[in-house]
Amino acid sequence: MSRVLAALLVLIALPASARAPKLTLFISVDALGSDLLLRHRSRLTGGLGQLLNTGAYYPYARYAYAEARTAPGHATLATGANPWRHGIVDNDVHDRSTGQSLQVYVDPTHTVLDGVTVPTADTSPASLMAETLADRLRGATQGRGKVVALSFKARAAIPLAGRLGQAWWFDEATGRLVTSTWYAKAVPAWMQAFNTRKLADAGFGKTWELLRPRAEYVGQDDAATEPPDPYGMGRVFPHALSGGAKEPGPKSYRVFAVSPRSHDLLVQAAKAALEGEGLGRDDVPDMLAVSFSGTDAVFHAFGPSSWEMQDTLLRLDQAMGELIAAAERAAGGKANLVIALSADHGGAEIPETWLEAGLPALRFNPVEAAKALAQELKAKFGVEVTVKLLELDVYLGGKALESGQVDGAAVRRAAAAWLAKQPYTVTAVARDDLDTAPDTGGLVAPLRRGYYPVRSGDVLFVAKPFHVVSDYPRGTNHGTPYSYDVQVPVVFAGRGVKPGLYLQEIDPVDVAPTLSALMEMGMPASAEGKPRAEALTGRQ
Q1: Beta carbons within 10 angstroms of residue 252's beta carbon
Q2: To which H or E segment does residue 267 belong?
Q3: Where is the signal peptide, in residue numbers (predicted)?
């Protein structure tokens, strides 16, 4: 179906007196892959479960680019575009001038307001090269519509807020929600009041207990593949939430961010934003975006099959019910509310768990691979070449390359050829050949969609299935173009949505255009997706 025809079907489906919803609630759950959600759907009876049962539920949305990570995932959900347009290629990028890794939303000209500014950390949307749903809403309402985005991660809150909304994230140094000088000159009264409640401090000395009887959890609590003492909270339930500290502080705040109490803090912050900003109170449409980050921290440390992941989903299910109920009240009822839910990425199983099950899994250390590649290039060209591997991006540098002493394209192609021969690699491509390389396996196209000049690597590669890129000997990761990493759920619910189970595979770039249609406004400027007409008309 063409984009024009899809848009016409949407217009036909809308009643003549159509008006935008008073409030749109945009929910993202970090690391909620389709497989993880489907495994536990029958156990979800709260807000998340109700969304799946009463909304337009797409279990199989697939990101079309290769590096499934938090920053690009949220940017794609917010813009309706792939990284080759919005420019957010990964959580971190390599600064060739300093040899330093920087977070992708770093901005030295904008510091954290009333918090601690880390020079290499995310603070503003200056790096985001595409208009977001939040920006479009602000433009369509001539600045009257309000947008507030909340997350424990700046790299999630910033793209959801765009350039024109408000972004708030958790500061692990202070235990408060903070923003930067890009978004505000002073902390508003409602956020000041929220932070004085010190909810992160209230979690100190408490424990993370199982929500349900132990017999209801699948597998083992004490799995040998888990780290011995992740985040200083222990490997088995109940988990201590002090982080080994004697009083509330950065150590305990880090553990708090992993625990399900992080879900509760975000819900309370959302309720404060609804009240403090008056979201949904009038006929000018507003948007509240909430990205739950604790799920991702649990995934990395304990793995997607762990008791910790099972329990955090159950508790998220509860928290989401409270969030949705608050949004309904703020909007004056369900008839005035639209809800969208998705995820930034999925994630791999702990590779040693896969290996025990008989799958060809491997934990692939990028630091060791970079050393081996540097030795190979020195032997071949007789000069020192620095090599940095960040997920699927290989950055090459050194004086010989920068001065032109050796041919850069030749070095990049040699690096790609060496990587392609390694037992952990499926394909590797120098940036010089990205547009012309044969794509018989269908993996070069995802690399192209994720490539943005200057920020992306000099060589891009794809590891084999069940191979996890990680320099840490325990836990797991994500960032490949395989289904377990790139397949996520999408749900639309509320005003104008036709509930049902929609089994066609869609692309998360369709989320922002569909919400644009539901919100009665144009799409973000660089959107590549289209409105999901079947979710608005009921015709598949």
Answers
A1: 27
A2: helix 261-277
A3: 1-18
Q: Is residue 169 a contact partner of residue 152, using CB atoms and an 8 Å limit?
A: yes
SS3 (DSSP) at 248: coil
User: HSE of 43 in the Cβ direction (CA atoms, 13 Å)?
Assistant: 18
Is the torsion defined by CA of 260, 279, 50, 506 positive or negative? negative
**Does residue 275 sit in the same domain as residue 402?**
no
Tell whether residue 64 is among the known ligand binding residues.
no
Q: 144-183: per-residue pLDDT in tens?
A: 999 999 999 999 999 999 999 999 999 999 999 999 999 9
Residues 368 and 317 both lie in one domain: no
**Cα gap 432→429, rounded to integer Å:** 8
| Domain boundaries, position 408 | 362-469
Q: Are strands 459-463 and 467-469 parallel, antiparallel or unpaired?
A: unpaired
Token readout for 98 is: 């300093």
Q: Are residues 149 and 59 in the same domain?
A: yes
91 labelled ligand-binding = yes
pTM of the predicted model as reported, rounded to 2 decimal places: 0.95
Query: Per residue in 1-33, is it b (16+ CB within 10 Å) or e — as a string?
Result: eeeeebbebbeebbeeeeebbbbbbbbbbbbbb
- Residues annotated as part of the active site: 70
Q: Indicate the DSSP class of residue 10.
A: H
Q: Which of 466, 462, 231 is nearest to 353 (CA)?
A: 466
154 is in an annotated binding site: yes
Residue 195 in marked binding region? no
